[in-house]
């Protein structure tokens, strides 16, 4: 048996909100990752199974390595189909916000969502949720992924037996990508019990791994090797490091969305490495995107809040800097200097 995620009060409230709705929209954060897309599709499969009119609206495009996911073509991307997205949000009476804890993570879609009079439900695993802006908040920071939360909810609502292989594959993908294929945040035996339940629904987990992680282009491999060779600098006795990635370099290696995802984890393979910082020029705005990972007893979330206008999880956080790359590097260096490793 799985430990219930929701109290009976929360479960009842969620059921009531779903039953009373006609038009449901599911939203996720800007720059959607595997968990954002996996949890959104996972919930949409469930709601459509109840014959509820349901649509997913993502603020910006998601990486190509997720484009095999069942039903991913049903997703409306706000930055590409603005009028459709606005129409869907405006006609919604119930909006699920998945895998984010604050409206600013919607970027350009923030205002439309905040203005919407629909009932809003948050289902998320980040710390410090903006509770007051939602009608129902299901926030569980100890959960490794929002997709795992969606599984729990569907299971508690009694719909596990009806879960299709495609449905299970979406949930598995989100659980896998938010834990680095079950290499961090994944010591709870229940995570593996859920994987077993998903396998019983027919997923081929080895195939899913290949589709997500072994779908590189030659250019991506060359970009990684270029960055690690030329742009990675070590600090504090190899306890910390920074690498940069500019638009010019992206052009050289025919960068496509998702090509740098995971690269920030690579330096943590060095024994004793505590902090890896990635600074990447944004492709749309004139800002530097900051991505951080930490290990070996150091936690990077506070650093993201204090130095990089961001936040996140204890060991995987990010933010942004409104300045050119050289200044961003100086800021990151100062942030590292402030740490007593
Ligand atoms: P990534 O490095 O994969 O882009 O982001 C890792 C985590 O950092 C995300 O799951 C998210 O929680 C957090 N994060 C990334 N960018 C931002 C940001 O701009 N603001 C906040 N508050 N969190 C961010
Ligand atoms: Mn997540």
TrEMBL record:
Residues 23-175 form the DDH domain. InterPro entries: DDH_dom, DHH_sf, DHHA1_dom, Oligoribo/pAp-PDE_c-di-AMP_PDE. GO terms for molecular function: nucleic acid binding. Residues 256-337 form the DHHA1 domain. This is Bifunctional oligoribonuclease/PAP phosphatase NrnA. The lineage of its organism: Bacteria, Pseudomonadati, Bacteroidota, Bacteroidia, Bacteroidales.
